Amino acid sequence: MNDIVLVLLLFVALTVVGVPLFAAVGLATALALFLLDIPQTLLAQTAFTSLQPFPLLTIPLFVLAGRLMEVGGMATRLIDVARSLVGAYRGSLGLVTVFGCMLFAALSGSGPATTAAIGSVTIPAMRQEGYSPRFAAAVAASGGALGSVIPPSNLLIIYGLVSETSIPRLFLAGFVPGIVVAVLLMAIAYGIARYRQWGGTGVAFNTRAFATAVWAGKWSLGAPVVILGGIYGGAFTPTEAAGVAVFYALFVGLFVYRELDFAKIVESLRFTALISGLLILLAPTLAFGQVSAFLDVPSLIETTITRLTTDPVLIMLMIGVFYILIGTFMESLAQIILFTAVFLPLVLGLGIDPVLFGVFTVMTCEIGFLTPPLGANLNVAARITGISIEAVSVGALPFIAAYLIGLLFLIFWPEATLFLPDLVYGPSRF
After folding, report:
1. What is the domain count for the chain?
2. Non-local CB neighbours of 245 within 8 Å, separated by 6+ positions
3. Does residue 44 sit within a domain?
4. How far out from the chain centre does Cα 315 lie?
């Protein structure tokens, strides 16, 4: 017990003083290895093996594909389709933003990337129509968080690798809760805009304009069909689908829309390298997970929680509160890797499907995207809008309610989340 306390104190102290997370986790792990008299070479071995799994290629490839689609004109055409479908009335641009984020989420796999791609188009448009800058940024940030639960999702991929859960099953399980949250976000955006009397200008819905926008954006709309259809049709694996997505984005951007050039491709590669650099967290956090097993931390936490209650619903609520609090200051990637090893044995013992727990975990991470001080989506939306992250975080408060309701939907109606994966692949045998 004393060893566990020392390791935790070091980790918390390093985090509080601002040491980069990968270094804080690595130093805490090194201390734990020293206390357990385990060779420090475990860190090096874990660093080597953690980056070996082939499915890890999926993450940088989807990030690159999403960026190429953003700068290559595909995101703009998705917005045009959404605007022509919604039409002009009070709050319409808020609905367009959420709907556009939902479509782009099926291309990028990343919450911050979705916020950047859609927000860069819709936030200026909302400000021109008189929407509050705080509201415009909050809608884009909250809608962008859908990129982490609607497949393909980078966080679901990481969870699948850490927990050894089927990634295609996780992808399918993300559809229903993702759509539920998207509808709730639209309802909140519409209600606020209606109350504030924002929007209402532009062209009203008509069939001809919608058909024109769909035809102009057919290549953009075809991307999720090719990517997800290929995965579930058995044509290629999720990793191969990410490669197909990059090829598709390059082909459409270079030869169809002709908005891609060499400078944009280089910038997209640089952006991908920066985002993919987060994978450096894999090595120390996986080693930390192994050390926590040596210290019997999962059993200790399981015993502590089950002494309080054995009700699966209450335990999921407790884990959800913990994840949301941790997500305010911890990177989502590290959060998933560190705590999946701790909580997954507990929920499996309660009979909770690991696929359901994966979607639940990622949805709590989405709330982390919308809460300061870390708040990745808040930072992106604040930069686009030119206001402070504090202002955006206040504007995002009503939208966080949609994700909280989504979590309750997962907990109290798990059959709805598991319906699609069970339908396609049969009942889970965990």
Report:
1. 1
2. 61, 62, 65, 107, 223, 226, 227
3. yes
4. 23
The pLDDT of residue 203 is 60
Distances (CA, A) of 48 to 41, 155, 288: 11, 21, 15
What lies within 8 Å, CB to CB, of 1 at 6+ separation is none
Q: Tell me if 42 sits within 8 A of 290, measured CB to CB.
A: yes
Number of CB atoms found within 10 A of residue 140's CB? 32
- What distance in Å separates the CA atoms of residue 240 and residue 401, rounded to the nearest whole number? 36
Q: How far is CA 350 from the centre of its chain?
A: 26
Average model confidence (pLDDT) across the chain: 84
Rounded to whole angstroms, the Cα distance separating 384 from 77 reads 19
Beta bridge mates, 199: 90
The DSSP element (H or E) to which 95 belongs, if any, is: helix 92-108
Tell me, yes or no, whether 199 lies in a domain.
yes
> How many Å apart are CA 86 and CA 101, to the nearest integer?
14
d(CA 167, CA 63): 17
Residue 418 lies in a domain: yes
∠358-359-362 over CA atoms, to 5°?
85
- 32 inside domain: no
Would you tell me how many other CB atoms lie within 10 Å of the CB of residue 276?
A: 17
| 78 token code pair | 């998705």
Domain that includes residue 73, residue range: 39-425
Nearest to 21 by CA among 290, 301, 332, 291: 332
Question: If we measure between CA atoms, which residue out of 276, 385, 281 comes closest to residue 338?
Answer: 281
Please state which of the ranges 31-40, 84-93, 281-290 shows the lowest mean pLDDT. 84-93
Count how many residues are written for the chain: 430
- Residue pair 154/148 in contact by the 8 Å Cβ criterion: yes
Residue 315: pLDDT over 80: yes
Separation of alpha carbons 290 and 283, rounded Å = 11
Query: Is the N-terminal amide bond of 238 cis, ω within 30° of 0?
Result: no
170 or 147, which is more confident?
Answer: 170
Report helix, strand or coil for 172.
helix
* Cα gap 301→354, rounded to integer Å: 18
**22 token code pair:** 């990968």
Residue 118, classed as helix, strand or coil, is: helix
Dihedral sign for Cα atoms in the order 38, 40, 45, 51:
positive
Query: How far is CA 370 from each of CA 102, 193, 324, 408, rounded to the nearest angstrom?
Result: 17, 20, 10, 18
